[in-house]
Specification:
single chain; alpha+beta; 2,3-Dihydroxybiphenyl 1,2-Dioxygenase, domain 1; eight-stranded mixed sheet; Anthracycline_SecMetBiosynth; VOC family protein
């Protein structure tokens, strides 16, 4: 079981969370689709619910904090200096929309938008590293940055986080994996798939034991299918939209 207890390397996707207008409905939906249990962090932290797999932190769901806030998954990238990262974001054509701010006893964070319009978070760990479990059913297994201008996005993330890129055989020409310190950490490319008219965004992939069973659970829970389950060279994949409009993907073993 891939467990992590130390800080994630700078630039690595290290956390994912979602803000929703109805926490009860959201935890019921994701609990049925991904098998998560939840821990309410309490009023002090705005009833931010930590999603757990095998007792380890896998993601989080919290309440919308301000009117007009979109329901979308946010991927957080690790930093050892959130303030320094904020400066690099603005110097390279992005902008910071929240923070940097301290989260008492856990870390320092910000939310930013890259030059293509994709929102992402930055997490500087102190007491909480972010993901404690990964590459397991019920945990984050991959992330894509799907960007309206992938060339501009790649330049931005290379400048801010030091990413290097590698082409992927069989993928669209503009899709490449990105690496942190020589370790592949996700993918980046154009606006392939997903709901029509989607803006630039980061897309989380969560591992499940059986993609088709998870898709059926999502449909029973008022989710919709943006991309039906299909076998790919990288596993069986489906893309879903939750009842609040947030898009995410499922990944599992190849189906028959």
């Amino acid at each position: 079981m891939p467990i992590r207890e130390t800080r994630w390397p700078v630039g690595t996707p290290c956390w994912a969370d979602l803000s929703v207008p109805d926490l009860t409905a959201a935890t019921e939906f994701y609990g049925s689709v991904l098998g998560w249990s939840f821990v309410d962090t309490g009023e002090q932290y705005g009833h931010y619910h930590i999603a757990q797999t095998k007792g380890k932190a896998a993601a989080a769901i919290g309440p919308i904090m301000q009117e007009g806030q979109p329901c979308a998954w946010t991927i957080y990238l690790a930093s050892d200096d959130a303030d320094g990262t904020a400066k690099l974001v603005t110097e390279n054509g992005g902008h910071v929309v929240a923070g940097p701010m301290d989260i008492e006893g856990t870390g320092r964070m910000l939310v930013a938008v890259d030059p293509t319009g994709a929102a992402f978070g930055v997490w500087q760990a102190t007491g909480t590293i972010g993901l404690e479990i990964y590459n397991e059913p019920g945990a984050l297994v991959w992330e894509d940055a799907r960007l309206g201008d992938p060339a501009a996005g790649k330049r931005f993330y290379a400048a801010v986080f030091g990413y290097s890129y590698q082409p992927v055989e069989g993928a669209p020409d503009d899709y490449e994996t990105f690496s942190v310190g020589g370790e592949t950490a996700g993918g980046m490319g154009g606006l392939m798939g997903g709901p029509q008219g989607s803006p630039s965004h980061w897309l989380p992939y969560f591992s499940v034991p059986d993609v088709d069973t998870a898709v059926a659970a999502a449909e029973r829970g008022a989710g919709t299918v943006a991309m039906p389950a299909e076998n790919t060279p990288f596993g069986r994949i489906a893309m879903l939209v939750d009842p609040f409009g947030a898009t995410f993907s499922l990944h599992g073993q190849l189906g028959e």
